[in-house]
Specification:
Strand order of the largest sheet of chain A: 3-2-4-5-7-6-12
Number of helices of chain B: 10
Largest sheet of chain A: 7 strands, mixed
Order of helices and strands of chain B: HHEHHHEHEEEHHEHEH
Number of domains of chain A: 2
Structural class of chain B: alpha/beta
CATH class of chain B: Alpha Beta
CATH superfamily of chain B: Thiamin diphosphate (ThDP)-binding fold, Pyr/PP domains
CATH class of the largest domain in chain A: Alpha Beta
CATH architecture of chain B: 3-Layer(aba) Sandwich
Largest interface: A-B, 31 and 33 residues
Order of helices and strands of chain A: EHEHEHEHEHEHEEEEHEEHEHEHHHH
Distance between the termini of chain A: 28 Å
Oligomer: heterodimer
CATH superfamily of the largest domain in chain A: Thiamin diphosphate (ThDP)-binding fold, Pyr/PP domains
Chain lengths: 334, 310
């Protein structure tokens, strides 16, 4: 049973920032929503409120970077690239400022609907020269994300989880880390962020049904470890499934496809995620089911690759569900 | 660092160099030299506290963009002097004023005249739209509206570190159509950033023509004040007025100097082109000859020997 950690980011950021004088905390009117309200109250001299003005915040952060500071920008992920994209490129990415973009509520983890859902952020960020892109998948990774991001000599975009977050891992996230969660020989499953938990559930059921799953959890979308993916894909017989809290274009599915194609490795690939569509607002479990981002969707994709029905249904997946996680997590308020 | 030449001489030299370059190259940003010559001359020759240039007089060729694989990358900031706590920084926000800014660097001895011959040549760092690596450019400003925000962040950081150097942004009035300009002013005022000031070339012109036809911006002095800045207004071609405006105290707030300029100052012949002044091209050889003689006469210099040009 996974431990549930409450607000891991809040504690980790405060602890880290207090040890590093050049780290600044910036917010664009989503301070408590990004768990930095306590930091603001306790350390106002390290906190800069930039208001609902992300374009200015982005260029302003570039200026702070010029002055040798390492600003952490806190907002919902979507607000860190859609509106201020030009500023992101010209003021932060091009000049390689050490600006840390902490994007909360990635993908469908927000109930906020289209305007709030960062569903193409990985695609956008990983195509930007000089950008590093990280994603946390559990409480341990959220806690270690702060230090990992700040270790990068250049700008970093992070997909951050907030609120009640399960602890799945006991070793910290590092830039470039790929976690090998199982070493099966039938199908390779590649996940990141919240989809890893879904794959853990599916894997247990698939294992009982006799399907051997090799499972990789990614923490780093860029730089992408293509060689590692190819190596693992080469050691499974039936193919590869990617499952991402993102559009299937431009994210993990695309990166894996590119890696396989460039290596000339022929493996069938099923990409799960949002399929060229926007999403609407709703709870995370509802959206993951509705758009095929959950354990059940993963089981069906594996069946397609193996050509064999497993007989696994919702009930079987419920049985392996990490109950403490989902009973504790309700549809989150903004 | 102070130049031996008067600011009037520098301003005249800027117009002359931009005019001669435009004649030889069949067009250029002439109007920006008309409106901004005194302002840039004022900034470089007396208003800013800049150290000596740290970069070669003849600009090195383009040496790659910033990347982890390009550790020797340098911006054009060194032409404005070293990064030291006591020195000011200057951002040229309208990057299409680059030709005018380069001419100014030559006039104040920070770049060799040969630098202008590299303007807009492939492989050169002396780019037409000033890039971060172009002489005198410190950050990318090619998209208008981002300069003041970046400067506000830098100024906040410098104040936090106790540095005495200020941050100055040379701006153009077209930038007030961008929302980010207003975000920047409100943030600078909110955070009481007063080691920041801007000198804005208010020439009422933009790419499509006269600003009033393209998008009315109304009373920008009143708007800047409402957003929290201290505003001073002056005639952009009157150096004493510029000096007085730039000396306006602005404790706890950024200062915006609105320098009201003429887009044809010193080259009244360009009036014939009004309001299409953003980039002046010649419609015919005859027009080129006519403009060459008329403007040279206005500037009190000999016409450019066009036969020798390519």
């Amino acid at each position: 049973m996974a431990e549930i950690v409450n607000r891991p980011y809040a504690r980790a950021f405060e602890e880290y920032a207090l040890r590093h004088d050049d780290v600044l905390c910036l917010s664009a009117d989503l301070t408590s929503s990004c768990e930095i309200d306590g930091f603001r109250d306790r350390h106002p001299e390290r906190f800069l409120s930039l208001g609902m003005a992300e374009q200015n915040m982005m260029s302003f952060a570039g200026g702070l970077g010029m002055a040798g500071f390492r600003p952490f920008l806190h907002s919902f992920g979507v607000f860190l690239y859609r509106r201020p994209y030009d500023q992101l490129v010209a003021s932060v990415a091009y000049p390689r400022r050490r600006v840390r973009l902490m994007g909360f509520l990635p993908g469908v983890t927000t109930p906020g609907g289209m305007t709030h859902q960062a569903i193409e952020d990985v695609a956008v960020m990983r195509t930007l020269p000089n950008m590093t892109v990280l994603e946390a998948g559990d409480a341990t990774e959220v806690e270690s994300l702060v230090e990992a991001a700040d270790s990068v000599d250049g700008p970093v975009y992070c997909r951050v989880l907030r609120g009640a977050v399960p602890r799945l891992f006991d070793t910290p996230l590092r830039v470039g880390l790929v976690r090998e969660l199982s070493e099966g020989s039938d199908v390779l499953v590649v996940t990141a962020g919240i989809t890893t938990e879904e794959a853990l559930r599916a894997r247990a059921a698939l294992g009982r049904a006799g399907v051997s799953v090799r499972h990789l959890h990614l923490t780093t979308h860029k730089p992408f470890d293509a060689a590692r993916i190819v190596e693992h894909a080469a050691s499974v017989r039936r193919g590869v499934v990617t499952l991402e809290n993102h559009l299937i274009a431009g994210g993990i599915g695309s990166q894996v496809a590119e890696a396989l194609a460039e290596a000339g490795l022929a493996r069938r690939l099923r990409r799960l995620g949002l399929r060229d569509t926007y999403a609407h607002g709703g709870s995370r479990p509802y959206l993951m089911r509705h758009y095929g981002l959950d354990a059940l969707a993963l089981v069906r994709a594996v069946e397609e690759l193996t050509g064999e029905r497993t007989g696994i249904g919702e009930e079987a997946l419920e049985a392996v569900r990490i109950e403490a996680v989902h009973s504790a997590v309700k549809a989150e308020a903004l | 660092m102070r130049n031996e030449r008067t600011t009037e001489e520098v301003a005249h030299g800027i117009r002359r160099r931009v005019f001669e370059h435009s004649m030889r190259n069949n067009g250029g940003y002439l109007s920006q030299a008309c409106s901004a010559a005194e302002q840039l001359a004022f900034l470089y020759n007396e208003a800013l506290h800049l150290g000596p240039s740290t970069r070669p007089l003849i600009p090195p060729p383009f040496a790659g963009v910033p990347s982890a694989d390009n550790p020797d990358y340098q911006t054009g900031a060194g032409y404005n002097g070293p990064f030291a706590p006591e020195y000011d920084r200057l951002f040229i926000a309208p990057a299409h004023y680059a030709l005018v800014a380069y001419a100014c660097l030559i006039e104040v001895g920070r770049m060799a005249p040969e630098g202008l011959e590299m303007f807009n040549k492939d492989g050169s760092s002396v780019e037409m739209i000033g890039a971060e690596h172009s002489p005198g450019m410190e950050v990318h400003n090619g998209t208008l509206g981002i300069g003041l925000s970046t400067a506000a962040g830098l100024a906040w950081g410098r104040a936090r570190r106790g540095e005495t150097g200020r941050v100055c942004v040379f701006m153009s009035d077209g930038e007030v159509q961008e929302g980010q300009t207003w975000e920047a002013v409100q943030a600078a005022a909110h955070h009481r950033i007063d080691n920041l000031w801007a000198l804005m070339d208010v020439n009422r012109q933009q790419c499509d023509g006269a600003m009033d036809d393209v998008m009315e911006v109304r009373d920008i002095a009143e708007k800047f004040r409402a957003f929290g800045a201290v505003v001073a207004e002056c005639d952009a071609h009157d150096l004493d007025a510029l000096r007085e405006a730039a000396a306006t105290p602005h404790p706890g707030r950024p200062l915006i100097v609105l320098a009201h300029s003429s887009p044809t100052q010193g080259m009244e012949f360009l009036r014939r082109r009004f309001p299409r002044l953003h980039y002046v091209r010649f419609k015919s050889e005859e027009e080129r000859r006519e403009m060459n003689e008329a403007i040279a006469a206005e500037l009190g210099i000999p016409p450019v020997p066009l036969e020798e040009a390519h």
